[in-house]
Amino acid sequence: MFNIVLVSPKIPQNTGSIGRTCVALGIRLHIVKPIPYELDDTKIKRAGLDYWPHLDLVVWESLDEFLAQNPITDRHFFLTTKTDSSYLDTSFLPGDFLYFGSEDAGLPLPLMEKREEGMITIDMREEFRSLNLATAVSIVSYEVFRQNKEAFSWAK
Question: How many whole angstroms separate alpha carbon 107 and alpha carbon 115?
Fold first, then answer.
């Protein structure tokens, strides 16, 4: 199983859309608090539609709690605009953790510094800051699927 890790996401509609993508692919979603909304928010439900009850969801009270149970290894990747290393040049394997930060601040630098070679980015024109969080998760999730289709039991 692959793992998407959202660290302090701020927009419930993005979280709902990301959950929907995770259900569609069979990827576990980890949400690391704090978050400024409840997970039963109607905006999440609207974006996640009737997929949300099927989501393999793990909610963590803090990043420290998450990392205590999921220590950083060479299979942890941090999506960021602070690198030139493309996700397209990364080989993903079942069990990988793909971290995405909040919409306004991204991932904490001290987290990414724990494994700088795990920092990867989505290629885009230099004059733009970033992509929508739900869009970014979808792009990378489908690359994970493309590389590992045989690992997804439903795709056989």
Answer: 13
| 0.70 surpassed by pTM | yes
The domain total for the chain is 1
Half-sphere exposure of 22 (CA within 13 A, CB side): 30
Integer Cα distance of 12 and 75 in angstroms: 27
Secondary structure of 70-138 as H, E, C letters: CCCCCCEEEECCCCCCEHHHCCCCCCCEEEECECCCECCHHHHHHHHHHEEECCCCCCCCCCCHHHHHH
Q: Which of 140, 41, 46 is nearest to 98 (CA)?
A: 140
Q: What is the CATH number of the domain that holds 75?
A: 3.40.1280.10
| Partners of 76 in beta bridges | 97
Write out pLDDT tens, residues 55-73: 999 999 999 999 999 999 9
